[in-house]
Amino acid sequence: MAHIESTETPPADLRLRAALRLDGRASPKASASIGFDALSVLHALASTPERAADALALLHELQVHQVELELQAEELRESRQALELALAQQAQRYDHQPVACFTLDQDLLVHELNRMAARALGLDQDDACGQALDSFLPPQGGQTMRALIAACRDRDPPVATATLTLQPRSGAAQTFRVSLGPLPDEALFLATFCEESSTDPARQAGR
User: 47 — phi, psi (to 5°)?
Assistant: First the structure.
């Protein structure tokens, strides 16, 4: 699973920006000296008896904003953890499908594959990524895969099927029933290869 980069702003930075806004001198280029500046403002207000109430009010506002920002940061952390868990679960489901699954582009380059797919190619998963799937197919097999990609674009639902033979790097060739469809919002396609039990040559269209 791809690592998710955090876009969460550290709580200290959030509190810093909140202090700037409360002080009425917010600036996108302000430095970290605002912590000292805010304390200086509070000290100046508290040093004057008639402004002590203003100092207490400002301190209260700062504390309220601090709590709000801490709650916001906590919610962001929980949301990120939930998203990472969901993505990990999806990756596990993909990897443990009982059929060979390939994520391909229109040039038949393998972007992702599960364990069954790697086994069908006779390679480790890491070694299989970036390989051209048609290099594991007979000459007409590559043409058939490209025809499936073209066909699924014109169908509703957008799924095309065929029977193909895969030749792994080591071991005997296997015949599969292939289903292919586009992935949503991506220029990629998901192809599932279900092993055929029949060895009837008439069904091996990809040979």
Answer: -75, -15
